[in-house]
Amino acid sequence: MILLFFSTLLLLPVLMGIGKITENFSGKLWEGVSGKIFLGILGISLLWTIAAFFISLNSYVEFSTIAIGLIYFFKDKLYKDFIAFSKKDFSLIAAISLIIVYCGSFYPYILDHFGYYVPTIKWLKEFGLVKGISNLDLTLGQMSVWHIFQAGFSNFTDPFLRINSVVLIIYTLYIVEKKSWIQLCFIPVLLLFCQSPSPDLPVIIFSVIILNEILRENKQTTLLFAFSVFVFIIKPTMIWLPVLSFLYSVFILKSNLKNLTLGILIGFLFFVKNIYTFGYPVFPVSIIDLGVSWKPNSEVLKISSQFAIQKTYDMQYSYEEIQKFSAIDYIRNWIFLNGIKAKINLLFIVSLIIFTVFTFIKKNRIITFICISLIIKSILVLLFSAQYRFFMDVFFVIFFLLFVDYFNQKKSLIVFSGLSIIFVSFLTFPNILQTYFPSFNPGNFMGKFEKEQLYKPSVYESTKFDSFRVGNLNFHVSENYPFNYDSKIPAISAGYVSQDEKAGIFPQLIDNTDLKKGFIWKKLNNEERKQAKSVIHTINPLGK
Predict the structure, then answer these.
(1) What is the model's pTM?
(2) Closest CA to 217 of 340, 46, 364, 84
């Protein structure tokens, strides 16, 4: 907790300083402390994404950014901006921040933390963006901009990967600054995402903030659209936000296309990054084939697509069974899955119906545009992989719009306090969640409270690993663990090793002497097939 608190104290002025520099070029997103900080996040993320094509996001990059941010923070006397907060406001911010750093100090438990977040950040710290890295481990092809942002601050400032906790504190500053009290109700739920650099937390926060600014008729068209596209490139399932910003800019503010240029450039950067790491413009969809030599094998993509469809049904049906579903079966079986996810799916459908009716009653153009945007997003998610984590943001948006006029400060604080007790209890005593919500799988991986976390956030030790060679690739596989986690790179998860071997292919270095040059896949010859089978036998001697 203490170290996380000090990380926050360092990051806030750094982000404000960089945000001030960004303001000098782009103008203000909105007045106040939070406006500068969010612009700082945008500016650093985009700058580091470009830099990562050429260099690693090492300690030199971090120290340079910290130095520049602090210089501008003190040179422009940005600390005076905090005077705008009253003692009462400051006390509220301090109390909420204490809850956040406490919850952020628990062990990470989201499985993507071990199979995706940490390995991605490790690659970015040591090599930056790597061409065709999805051939090594398909999951790594995502290389989210949020993990680029986290990686750059993970050498010294935030080695425990708790950037989400810092962002949640910044979100608190925005809520108090804007007096948007209903958003206090969201913080307790988001406490479940602050132990890992999960992209879900920032995109939910940023989307509700942009939504609030649109409802307040913020006229900074260029920055609103640019920030909306930024949210999209963090997590493409947020496609509804740039759609909304576009509709708002063109049909409400009557802006011309020139105002959308920055957002378009950010989107272009996203597509270039994906083509470089994955081979296609949008991960993990294999559309718009540019024929690059480092694109993943078609069989691997096919298996990934089938797995995504199974995940839609919480792995309760085989792919073959799903293929036999009628149109009615697709919907019925999704709504009536076993466990809590069925209730979430049903709530999602009911929420959309209620909001659609609400939109017809309101007859407000902005709310109509929001409804259209959410329906577009929902259709796309339902078509590709209707997992509840891909439409969580919809619940926040609909709740916000339905009750924004009802929740004043007093009511919001009551709800915040009640929900905080519940969610803090879940984290402190995870057996409650495991007992009463056994079908909520992440709850089974929550670690218990340890007194050491009062000083520093809890982290798991690095996994042991074995080293192998197939063709020109020396690689590592975690011992008795399905994910790469913190294994020495290049690392491949055991599942992908088996998958590649069955497909008769294996990742290979483009340049035998330089990992940064990237990876391609190639068909195994007889000698390489023997090597691959030997690896499979070592990591899975019983053939399970």
Answers:
(1) 0.94
(2) 364
